[in-house]
Q: What sequence folds into this?
């Protein structure tokens, strides 16, 4: 390579280092959202109780919270085995269900005093997006794998209709974060991203050292 | 270059290890084996059964904010050199889909003793049987929150099983207190 081309190559490489690191590191972080959310308790869902005036239910990463003054103050709902990343809350009379994003499910039949853990939804890695109950107590869960209908108070679930197709953006995001191969395949992307960052940094250090010696 | 390769291999090995899953429906320990471990050195062992009535179950449900299933509860007891070694109780707690059977021991001082996972039925999360996770419960009492991320660290990749074990420990502490109130250690 002639001198000007080599210089151009080096300086372009140096200039592109920052965006390359940003893209790689953000992919790594998007693929591992818990790294960023550690120590936080984001609100994932708020549902107004259709039976008890002023009562709101709030799904958080840590479990279920309740307000009895229309959102003025919130208190965690005590329970033995709280659902995590609560993505859906459904109310039918005194029966309240709360579902975690992974499909873990609890039910209270006394308006929120005592909570029973139920076997989770059969999602095989899909995520719960929302939960709803009809006036007759019929229970439905909207998930990344489509609609599920609950029977026997949420103890048995069957898929209804077709699963929603992934959008092109979903596919690109999955490719960017490594999730196109599932949770295990994602690890290869994590390793590749970590290696890219390491190579970029060590390459820059080696270049600086070499230039410094000249 | 050699350092870089070593770092990459270590990263891959670490990630593979954290992604490991357990076999389905695994009996890790029988009750007898677990009792011998949690009551090591005991010179006499016996059981005491209790079937809580409706009032007792309602009181437990109110304390735990979770229903207490009907049926008999077996308290395993032990003594060494005339000294009470406490209680051990089995309990089933739902992980994500299936119940996990645990043996939780409570010392005579009402603190959590050794905890053992007896039967694991989930497709993943069997890492909760590891000593490093279970030792977190040693010395906990009813005064502790016994909550994931607060005083108990979940096993990576086994969050729901970790939550179930934590719930089981909390339940057994409440059962011991309900059956053997502090004022009298024997019914």
A:
């Amino acid at each position: 390579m002639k001198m000007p081309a080599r210089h151009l190559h080096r300086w372009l490489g140096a200039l592109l280092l920052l965006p390359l690191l940003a893209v790689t590191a953000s992919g790594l972080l998007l693929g591992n959202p818990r790294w960023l959310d550690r120590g936080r308790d984001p609100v994932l869902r708020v549902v107004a109780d259709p039976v008890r005036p002023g009562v709101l239910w709030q799904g958080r990463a840590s479990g279920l919270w309740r307000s009895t003054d229309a959102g003025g103050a919130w208190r965690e709902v005590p329970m033995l085995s709280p659902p995590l990343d609560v993505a859906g809350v459904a109310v039918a009379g005194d029966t309240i269900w709360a579902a975690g994003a992974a499909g873990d499910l609890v039910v209270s039949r006394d308006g929120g005093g005592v909570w029973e853990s139920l076997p989770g939804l059969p999602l095989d890695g899909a995520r719960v997006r929302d939960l709803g109950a009809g006036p007759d107590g019929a229970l439905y869960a909207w998930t990344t794998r489509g609609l599920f209908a609950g029977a026997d108070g949420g103890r048995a679930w069957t898929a209804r209709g077709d699963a929603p197709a992934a959008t092109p953006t979903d596919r690109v995001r999955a490719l960017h974060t490594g999730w196109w191969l599932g949770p295990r395949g994602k690890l290869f992307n994590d390793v590749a991203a970590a290696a890219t960052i390491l190579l970029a940094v060590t390459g820059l250090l080696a270049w600086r050292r070499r230039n410094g010696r000249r | 270059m050699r350092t870089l390769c070593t770092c990459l291999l270590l990263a891959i090995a670490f990630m593979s290890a954290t992604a490991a899953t357990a076999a389905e429906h695994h009996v890790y320990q029988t009750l007898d084996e677990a009792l011998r471990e949690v009551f090591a050195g005991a010179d006499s062992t016996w059981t005491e059964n209790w079937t809580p009535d409706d009032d007792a179950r309602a009181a437990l449900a109110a304390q735990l904010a979770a229903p207490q299933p009907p049926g008999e509860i077996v308290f395993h007891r032990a003594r060494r050199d005339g000294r009470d070694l406490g209680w051990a109780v089995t309990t089933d707690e739902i992980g994500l889909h299936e119940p996990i059977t645990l043996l939780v021991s409570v010392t005579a001082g009402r603190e959590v003793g050794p905890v053992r996972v007896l039967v694991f039925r989930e497709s993943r999360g069997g890492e909760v049987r590891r000593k490093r996770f279970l030792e977190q419960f040693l010395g906990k009492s009813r005064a502790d929150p016994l909550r994931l991320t607060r005083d108990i660290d979940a096993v990576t990749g086994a969050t729901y099983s970790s939550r179930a074990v934590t719930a089981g420990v909390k339940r057994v502490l409440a059962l011991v207190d309900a059956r053997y109130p502090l004022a009298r250690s024997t019914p």
